[in-house]
Predict the structure.
Amino acid sequence: MSQATCRVAVLSVHTSPLELAGSGDAGGMNVYIREVATEMARRGVRSDIFTRRTDPDSPDIVEMSEGVRVINIKAGPQRPVHKDLLPRLVRRFIEGVIGYGPYDVIHAHYWLSGVAGATLKTIWGTPLVVSFHTLARVKDIASPGDPPEPIGRKRGEVRVIRVADRIIAPTDTERDQLIEYYDADPDRIYVAPPGVDLDRFVPGDRAAAKRRFGFSDDPLVVFVGRLQSFKGTDIAVSALRHLTRMVPDAQLAIVGGDSPRGAGGERMRLRLTARRLGVSERLRFMEPVGHGELPELYRAADVVVVPSASESFGLVALEASACGTPVVATAVGGLRVIVRDGESGYLVERRDPPSFAAALSRVLTDPGAQTRLGGNAVRLAHRFPWARTADGILDAYASVTACPDIKRALAGSGVSPIL
Ligand code: UDP
């Protein structure tokens, strides 16, 4: 068999796929990049993932799996820096990457990498594909009370959208937002929903899972993610107070770390809120859990809550669903695709604590409904294997490069069409 020759340069300037997701800047994007690169390599398309070096002791090149390398590029201080300071380091990042190319395709993740990709596209003469993961204008509209996203980010997004050969959107909603708010060319947008590892995220024994993490048998609500007000952690805590009026023994676990890293503020703020509301006894904070252990945590939960202000997709909701745990989520973005209201969980239109408490109590007080919702959640999650995400992305690659490995990889997905 001939050796694969097609190579993708994956750019992930601000966070490494090797980082533990769930704190700092590491979240769904890290999981996404890891899973997609692994799936592509399985089908003969190699990836080099370039990220900014944040530790002087890490090696230049880490072989993440066969056909997938993570390359740490020196650009600025060799330690984590706040996201707002990263734009001025992009130039040095580009200089560090140039010598490794050219590649057949550049796939940039998040706007910062998009900016780097736009320059590398010109230098190497290579097509540029971009996944934004979040968009500044969408975030601003979703939470008008929060400080607006930096103007440099908005300008950067506009420029990247203009020069990218292809843009990958996770949902039709984001496709429409790209067109409406950024005047993106509809023909260049490909929709490819993210996925979940359906071998690992599977249903199991809830009581055993609860014991494993030291929870009592009481009804358990779980929040998983980076601790940010944008994610609605404060809504989850305040909802607990309302919930305990309807389900007195309900407990809440908040799993994740402060974001930005080292900010230290959000968890402390939440503790104070819980104390003020008199629910500290029913609330437990947990450090980020490794991706391998998360299925068991989702299985421990009677319901997973995702009160985000906006969510480009929302991997946590999908992973919980795959484990048979109903999800109560804000009716926004990708969460509308993952959760079917009344079928696999509940979508909350009014993003406030009483509305979330009401939806959570509906799940917790009706054991029959819980089995039904959980069963439907698993069935729905099975529409989202990572292999299908890879198909969508390869389709976009194939439209901009003639590299034969990509066509072969597309043919070799083994995924049946969406039912
Ligand atoms: N995650 C994790 N451990 C944690 C918390 C989160 O591995 O303790 C992972 C989680 O499994 C999911 C990702 O981080 O894959 C979060 O993705 P999501 O799309 O929900 O949110 P984002 O971080 O992209 O805003």
